[in-house]
Amino acid sequence: MANEEERRKKSELLLPESGARPWGVRPFRFPRALWLKKKDKKKKSRRERETNSDEERAPLPVNRGEAEFYNEASANVAPVAVQASEYDPTNEIIPSSIPEDTEAPREEGGLFSEEGLAVALAVDNAAEDEFIYAAIEYDPDSKPPLHKNRRFRLYTCIALVIVVSVVVVVVVYITKSAKGDEIVNLSVDYTPPPTAAPTLAPTTDREASGIKEQIEMGVLQRGVTFQDLDKNDPRWLALDWILFKDQMQLQSNDKNLYQRYVMALLAYSFDSLAWHYCGEHREFDPKFGNVTEEYVVENCTVLDMTGDEEEHSVWLSSTPECGWYGAVCSSDDVLRGLQLIGNSLIGEIPPEISQLRFLQYLAFNGNCLYGTIPPEMSTMPNLLSLELQGNGLSGYMPVEMYDATKLQLLNVAMQYDYDDTCQRSNGTLVYTMYARGNLANGLNWGLTGNVLGNQTSRWESMKGLHIFDNSFTGEISDQIGELKYLVFLRAQNNQFSGLLPNGMTQLKKLRELYLYQNGLWSDIPPDIGLMEDLEDIRLGENMMYNPIPESFYNLRKMKNVWLQDTYECSNVTNDCEASPDVGFEGTIQTEIGNLKELSQLVINNNPFNGTLPSELGNCEKLSILHIHQTNIEGTIPKSVCLLRDKMLNTETGTGIFYADCRPNNKTGDPWISCSCCTDCCDHTTRVCIADD
Predict the structure, then answer these.
(1) Is 415 in contact with 470 (CB distance < 8 Å)?
(2) Of 598, 618, 461, which Cα lies nearest the Cα of 537?
(3) What is the domain partition of the chain in residue ranges?
(4) pLDDT for 437-452, tens place per residue?
(5) How many angstroms separate the CA atoms of 525 and 479, rounded?
(6) Distance of alpha carbon 515 from its chain centroid, rounded?
(7) Helices 211-218 and 257-269 sit at what angle, rounded to 10 degrees?
(8) What are 207-248's pLDDT values in tens digits?
(9) Is 351 in contact with 219 (CB distance < 8 Å)?
(10) 422: which strand partners?
(11) Residue 71 — φ and ψ, nearest 5°?
(12) Selection from 570, 688, 541 nearest residue 627 by Cα
C-alpha cells in the first residue's frame, strides 16, 4: 500500500492541474536584451506593407528598465509601456520594430547610438533570469521550435511516466517469478484487521530479514534447503514458529537464534503436544480469545525426585528457551544440558540437534524414539554425556560416533526387547518393541554394528559405556584396554563373540564388567587380578570354560560374581542351552575368603567340583549364594551356615542360598548335605523347592 501511495503522489507531480503550468516547462519571458534595428531597406519595405499612412511617426520615449511594444491591430492607439516585472504571459503583445528614420537625441547611457542602432541597457544582476535569450527577428507567421511547445512537453512527460511504469511492472513480475514467495506484491488491498486470530499473519519484514537464510546455512544438515521441505516437515514448522508465532521475534543476528530454532525443531520432531510434562498448552489466551499452541506464556509444575514442585515454562511458549522444562543453561544463557527423561517423546532424532554446539549433557532416555542415531551427533564438540537408553532405536550404529572423543558417557542400551507404548497427539500409538514403532514393520532388534571393534580406543575419555540389550556383533578388540578411564562396561544381551581379550586386563579403573548373554567362547584372562578396582563381573550365559584363575582371588574389592548358566551349543541346530556338564570347572579355592566384600556368588549350571571351602564363611556380607546344578558335593561348612544369621537368610527377604540338597532324582542321596539352605534343588530333575 505504501508503494502504491508513493507511485500515485509521484504521478500527480507529473500531471498539471487545471490552469497550472506543467512541471518542467518554463514560462515564456521576453529577453532582457533589446532588439537590434534591421537594415533600412528591409524596414522600409515592411512598413510600406503594414500601413496606408505616409505620415511619419516619432519614436516613443523609452524609460530605463522599460521596453517598447506596438500592436499592429491598434495603429491609432497610443503605445503602452510594460514593466518587465509585470509581464503577463497570456497577453500576446508583439514587440514593435524601431523606426529607421527616427532621430532621437543621444544621451549618455541612453537607448540609441549615433548610427541609429539600439544598444543594450545595464540590467540588475539580482533580477537576471537563468539564461538570456539571443536577439531574434519576430515573424508573425513562424512557429516556436517543437521542443519549446508546451503541449509537446506535456505529452512527452506523460509518455515517459507510462513507459517507466510499464518497465517497473515487468521487472517486478520477472523478479517475483524467479524468487517465488519471497517477493511481496507492490500493492496490497487494504483489509480491516481481524478481530480474533490464532496466529500472527506473516510479514514481509520477517521473511526478508535474513532469518531463513541464516538458519538454512547454519543449522540445516545434509544439504537440505527450506525449499526442499514439505510444509508439515518439523524443520519447516520450526522456521514458521520462529518467524511468525514466537512473540520474542528474534533477528538474524541474535546469538541464540540457532539454539532457539533447534529446540523448537525438537518440540515439533518429538510431538510436544503428547508429552507428559510441559508440552501441551492449556491456558486461555486473552489476546486472541482462544486456546493457542504457540503464543501464550505458560508455566508448568513438575515434581522432582524428592517430591518437591518445580516451576518451568512450557515448550514453544514465548519465553526464554532456557526456562523451558528440562533445559539447563549457563549464566550467559547458553544451553549446556537437555534432560527429557520419561516424557513420552515420539519420533526421530533430527540431525540438526548437532548444532547445539555447546551442549554437554543430553538425556532422552525412557521415551518412544525410533530410527537411528544421526551421525552428525559425533560433531558436537562439547558433548560429554549422551543418554538414549530405553527407546526403540534401531539400525547401524554410525562409525562417526568414534569421532566424539570427548564423550565420557555413552548410554544407548535397552533398544531391543524394551516394551513401552506411547500415544501421539493425534491418537495413534507407537510401540518400542517394533521397528519404527509400527507393528507392521516387525520386531525391533535394536542397534547393530561392531561397536567394540578396532576404533574403540578413540573414545579416550570414556568412563561409562552402556550398550546392553541391542544386537551388536563382532569380537571385542584388544584395543579396549586403552580406555584408561573406563569404569563401567555393560554390554550384556548382545551378539559379541570370540575371546575376552588380554588387553582388557589393562582397564585398571574398571569396576563393572557385564558381558553375560552373548556368544563369547572364552575363559577368564589369567591376568584378571591386575584389574584391582573390579567390583562386579558378570559372564554368565556364554560358552565359557577352564577354571577360575588364581589371580582372581586377589580382587579384594569384588562384590558380585556371576558365572552361571554356561551354554552348550549344538553344531547341528546351533541351539544353545544352559548345562551343568560344560563351562567353568575346577574347585573353589580357599583364597575366596580374601574377598571380604563379596555379596553375591552365582556359579550354578557349571561343572565345578570338590567341596565348598569353609573360608567362604569369612565373606560376612554374602547375601546370595547359588551353587546348585554343579558337581560340588559334601556338607556345607558350619562357617557358611552361620551366615544365615547375618545377610544370608530369608527372614529379611534378601538372603538366598541355593544348593543340591534335595534327594537326587527324587530317591537318591542329595549331592550336598545342607542344614541352612533356603532352597534345595534336585540335581537330576533340576527342580528347586524352598526349604520350609
Answers:
(1) yes
(2) 598
(3) 30-132, 342-350+359-633
(4) 999 999 999 999 999 9
(5) 15
(6) 38
(7) 80
(8) 888 999 999 999 999 999 999 999 999 999 999 999 999 999
(9) no
(10) 430
(11) -110, 120
(12) 688
